[in-house]
Amino acid sequence: MKNTEDLELVATTKRYGETVAVNAISHRFKAATYSCLLGPSGCGKSSTLRMIAGHEHVSSGDILLGSTNITDLQPAKRGTAMMFQNYALFPHLSVVDNVAFSLKMRGVDKATRRAQAHERLELVDMAAYADRLPSQLSGGQQQRVALARALITEPSVLLLDEPLSALDPFLRIRMRLELKRLQRELGISFIHVTHSQDEALALADEIIVMNDGVIEQAGAPRDVFNTPVTEFVARFIGGHNVLHVDGAPVAVRADRLHVAKTAGEGSGVEASVRDVEYQGASVNLALAVNGFGDLTAALPDQTFFNDPIEIGATVFLSWKPEDAHYLAA
Description:
CATH architecture of the largest domain: 3-Layer(aba) Sandwich
Order of helices and strands: EEEHEEEHHHEHEHEEHHEEEEEEHEE
CATH class of the largest domain: Alpha Beta
């Protein structure tokens, strides 16, 4: 099932009447990689995924899979498969028949399609539940069945629309590991839509940050996190402060702010502690700074508890020049 074909969007646009949901975006998703489309609600990420799947008409532009233009092909003819947010399992069919359903529609005989369905259920560790109905499964188990059903068509590209959003936090982390394992083992491309920064950072080989129908930044997770290129990306990806210095926006990571209780040499920037938030491995200080607005400093928990800082205290902030970088507006 290995995939050696890149998927490319070429000035791909989606309009709903006068509203432009996706505005002429161009991007190449490399073969056999895990990509996350990341952004807030309404940014165009799900519309982009649905255009790739063939569930939304492309208003203008093209979608290429390898050398094939798939823009106007039916969903079943594209070499892609979609796993929906609500799983969309047939309630009256057993697990094995849900997984085998697309092969039934293609006219594959019962013995062959059920054998292939069992193989996919083994892959997602659900073979023992083959004869159950979806209503007899937990949310995480239903998700695995939906995943097996999407994989049975042997797609080159698997499309996942917020697949973890309905799961509890513990199961969400476990399923992140499962998805990444499957993508590596199968060697196909996964394109995963999410609004969760943590999810994208944990899963992706490449993060594509969308805002208002366009791509603001694309790159490896570490690059996007360490060097956001716009103010929107710095704020959305989290863990950054955006300061305006001489009229230009500058990003400084929250864990790169040095916090002192007394003014030292050069004194630093004076701030008032508005709140203290314990995060386990770190403690976040919410700070009010004249001229800079609200900032956040993240301190290692050991550092904080060795010398705690009270709400209402005055502190002094500094950072190294190399830890600040300028942003596009």
